[in-house]
């Protein structure tokens, strides 16, 4: 139910002026819409310590990967992994890219349409 309502929220009519629409589902991952296609992104299971700044971590990683011309699925999986790694720290800025790369192997990006 939650995914269905999220998909409606980021439908084509909402994305006429933006290239990418990403909606966080918290521990349940995220949904991304781009070029008429919709992707469901999982998140690795980790122990939540502090979620302050997790969205910034996700967006920053996604945009950095995108600027390096990485495939969309890689941008999404690394962003999800970095966000998951980030929530394991007490502060709002720390994550470990080496640990995130390990977590990235647990992330699935599934094309829904």
Briefly summarize what is shown.
This protein is of the alpha+beta class. It has helices at 2-9, 54-67, 72-86, 97-104; strands at 20-24, 30-34, 37-41, 109-111.
Q: Quick one: overall form?
A: globular
Low-confidence stretches: none
Q: What proportion of the residues form beta strands (DSSP E)?
A: 15-25%
Radius of gyration: 14 Å
Average of per-residue pLDDT values: 89
Q: Percentage of helical residues?
A: 25-40%
- Secondary-structure element series: HEEEHHHE
From the N-terminal CA to the C-terminal CA, the straight-line distance is 17 Å
Q: What is the strand arrangement across the widest sheet?
A: 1-2-3-4
Discrete helix count: 4
Task: Give the biggest sheet.
Answer: 4 strands, antiparallel
What class do helices, strands and sheet pairing give? alpha+beta
Number of strands: 4
Describe the model.
There is one protein chain. With 113 residues, the protein is of the alpha+beta class. Helix content is 40%, strand content 16%. The chain has four helices and four strands; from the N terminus they run H-E-E-E-H-H-H-E. It has helices spanning 2-9, 54-67, 72-86, 97-104, and strands at 20-24, 30-34, 37-41, 109-111. Strands 1-2-3-4 form a four-stranded antiparallel beta sheet, sandwiched between helices. A hairpin with a 5-residue loop joins strand 1 and strand 2. Helix 2 packs antiparallel against helix 3 and helix 3 (72-86) packs across helix 4 (97-104). The chain is globular, with a radius of gyration of 14 Å. The chain starts with a helix and ends with a strand. The mean pLDDT is 89.
């Amino acid at each position: 139910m939650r995914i269905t309502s999220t998909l409606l929220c980021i439908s084509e009519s909402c994305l006429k002026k933006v290239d990418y629409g990403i909606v966080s589902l918290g521990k349940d991952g995220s949904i991304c819409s781009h070029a008429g296609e919709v992707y469901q992104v999982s998140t690795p299971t980790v122990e939540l310590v502090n979620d302050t700044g997790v969205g910034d971590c996700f967006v920053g990683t996604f945009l950095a990967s995108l600027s390096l011309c990485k495939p969309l699925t890689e941008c999404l999986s690394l962003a999800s992994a970095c966000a998951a790694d980030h929530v394991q720290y007490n502060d709002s800025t720390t994550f470990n890219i080496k640990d995130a790369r390990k977590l990235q192997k647990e992330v699935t990006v599934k094309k829904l349409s």
